[in-house]
Amino acid sequence: MDENQTKVVREFILAGFSQTQSIETGLFVLFLLFYVSTWVGNVLIMVTVVYDNHLNSSPMYFLLGNLSFLDLCYSTVTTPKLLADFLDNEKLIPYGQCIVQLFFLHVVGAAEMFLLTVMAYDRYVAICRPLHYTTIMSRGLCCVLVAASWMGGFVHSTVQTILTARLPFCGPNQVDNFFCDVPPVIKLACADTFVIELLMVSNSGLISTSSFVVLVSSYATILVKIRSKEGRRKALSTCGSHLMVVTLFFGPCIFIYARPFSTFSVDKMVSVLYNVITPMLNPLIYTLRNKEVKSAMRKLWDRSGLTWKKQET
């Protein structure tokens, strides 16, 4: 029997971005700023939604708070390991940790796709059926939809992880990315993965593409149903931030997962977009284009300032 066929891979090497230490150090500082900004922005949104009575009672902002939590989870699955690898020349990840990272990446990623679809439905009801909005989008239904998003992500990721973990790995062990994901990992398997690749593309690719189509269709339906120019302007203002988030998140995901698992030189940069950049930009997109959130943040800031002054006196 060939020696390679008896070898069992116990750890993978992540390719990273560069082998030059000075470049790695510069990237470490840059991505650390991205990660800190992600935490500050998303935590600020979550705290604002929780402590502002008006936002807390609104289904839209309840869902927004959950989206911020998902963004934190999504970024944390990959970025801390990436930051550590910038300072480590070897960039090793044990096989078990690689599978765990892959699992949670797809749990949170798919849950965010489903939640963005729920948020599009929320906007449809709010704009097209405003008189029935609070009745339809009750707190109970919102909680069920959020739980269903997480459950959908769990089921999706379980399928992906089981198919990947069952493959034998006995040869090359360098993952051509900065984290463990299905496409680059199964390329290293010592087996014919054609059928598994088709199953995974139909799974991840179908979820990302169909969710994107549903989202765009829902926003198009909103604009068609609104006749007045003023109403259309308000709808565009309300849905504009959602469309920006959808484009930034779903575009790279469709590029990566809705095609056969072939490697392109731009894959790493595309992965940076939906793993690092989008979770950081979401708070900026929602706050800069939303007067209610900015007003609530100012009130929260003023309240905390007054509390601090009282404690000093």
Describe this structure as you would to a colleague.
The chain crosses the membrane at residues 27-49, 99-121, 141-159, 205-224, 236-257, 269-288. Putative odorant or sperm cell receptor. By secondary structure, the protein is mainly alpha-helical. It has a single domain, classed as Rhodopsin 7-helix transmembrane proteins (Rhopdopsin 7-helix transmembrane proteins), CATH 1.20.1070.10. 77% of the residues lie in helices and 3% in strands. The protein has helices at residues 3-6, 21-51, 53-56, 59-86, 95-128, 133-136, 139-165, 182-186, 194-225, 229-257, 267-288, 291-312; strands at 11-14, 92-94, 174-175. Helix 4 packs antiparallel against helix 5 (95-128), helix 5 runs antiparallel to helix 10 and helix 10 (229-257) packs antiparallel against helix 11 (267-288). The protein is globular and about 65 Å long. 35% of the residues are buried.
